[in-house]
Structure formats: C-alpha cells, structure tokens
C-alpha cells in the first residue's frame, strides 16, 4: 500500500494506492488559508481516514508547493507562503508517528507520469505544470533530480525570453518570471490587457479558448502568442537537458491546440535541425501529483 498527499493552494488531497496501483481511497479538504497549524490538522484528519485501507505505519509521501531546504530543514520557495520556514516533514512525522517524505509538487507530477503514465518506459523526462502557477520536474536516468539547491526543474522562475512585454513582478520577488506570463491567471490577464474596449474585469481561460475556436481574431492571436512563449521557454529545457519526452499538466495543459502549436514554434528556437521531442498531455491528469507523492517511497 502507498499513501500520497497533494498539498495544494486550494485543496489537500489524500489517496491510498493498492499493490496493483489502483486508487482505493480518495478524500479532499480545502486548504486552510494562511494557517500552518490548520494545514497540519487537515493532513492528520485525512490520514486518519486511511486507516481502514492501509496499515497505521504506512509511510506517506507528500507533494508540496515549494522545496525542502537542505540548509535549514524547512520549506522554501512556497507560493503557499505560510509553509515557508516551517519544518513540515518533522512536524508531521511527530504528529502521525510514521515516516514522511516530501517533494516538490512538480517532481511528484513527473514521477507519477514516469512510473506508470505518459512517460513510462522513457529514460529522461521533463514534467511541466502550467496552471495557477508554473513548475517543472526532471527525471534523468530513471531518477528524480533535485539538484544542489533543491530547485532542479524550476523553469517557471527563469526569466521569460524577451518578447517586448511589460515587466511583471512575481511572488518570488523577482520580475519577468515565466510564471507571470504562462500561468492560467497570466493568460487571462494578458487577454484583458490586450482588450482595451472590454468592460469585463475577469475572463476565464476556457472562455478565451472558446472564442479562439470560433474565429475571434484577438483570442486566436492571444492563444498563438501564448504557444510561442511556451515554446521559447521550453527551448531552454530541450537545449540543456534534451529529454526523451515533455509531459504537460495543470489546467492550461487541457488546451488541445498547444500540442500542435508548441512543436511548430519549437522549430524556430531549438538548437537542432530536427526536433523529435514529444510534447504530450499527462495520462493521469489532476491525479498525477497525488499519485506521484504516493510513489515517492519507490523512488
């Protein structure tokens, strides 16, 4: 049995995966906003509900929206900011009296897809999350790569290749991060910024894509620009790592047009006369992160 927990900005999800790799228990709770102790209590509540399905000493893998610092043993780089500076794994190990392993949520995502998803059978794989935020995870020679600073794969906080756009501050305190242009909220903001006549104060990504599909010229151009920026940003990954496959996850990965447009624009940027890198959608969809967390003890 495996227990996985995905600690997200809006929800905490817990699953138990059977020995034949099927989810036999799943439960979600809303993430307490800005409340570290509340998050601990919610995780404890979820784990208690797994007791009919998994032994009480089953190790737990947890995907987090940040990284565990090797220097301090506490969380860093988390967009759920109440986690920053907290020894989450140590606190949970004491509270739950069982082994805890933490990993960045994007690492969990690609680990799930590598073990039994879209990247199964590959040697090297890169996972991309484009949703509320932008993250990445890297597998090389069948192993998750964390890196010396614990930030391997974090392409979402590279500066966006120059597109002549206005500067945008990022929550990480830097400017012009890929995340500030390619996340779902950024996609929506850019569309509104390019629509001076509109009186709307918000618009959903799905609505923009629907407009593009029925031929709205502004929406079509916006989607095309987004695909071009995504291709330019992924070029650094391909030029440096040259993975066997790139797997997309997160809400923006559900835009089918990206799987045609991004490979086309990669031809303009990648340092190769031919590009064979598949850009594919995650097999396990929204479940990839929590499944990958459960798989951490098989890493």
TrEMBL record:
It comes from Litoribrevibacter albus. Keywords: Carbohydrate metabolism. The keyword Nucleus does not apply. One of its GO terms (molecular function) is hexokinase activity. This is Fructokinase. Pfam families: ROK. InterPro entries: ATPase_NBD, ROK, ROK_cs. Transmembrane segments: none annotated. It comes from the Bacteria.
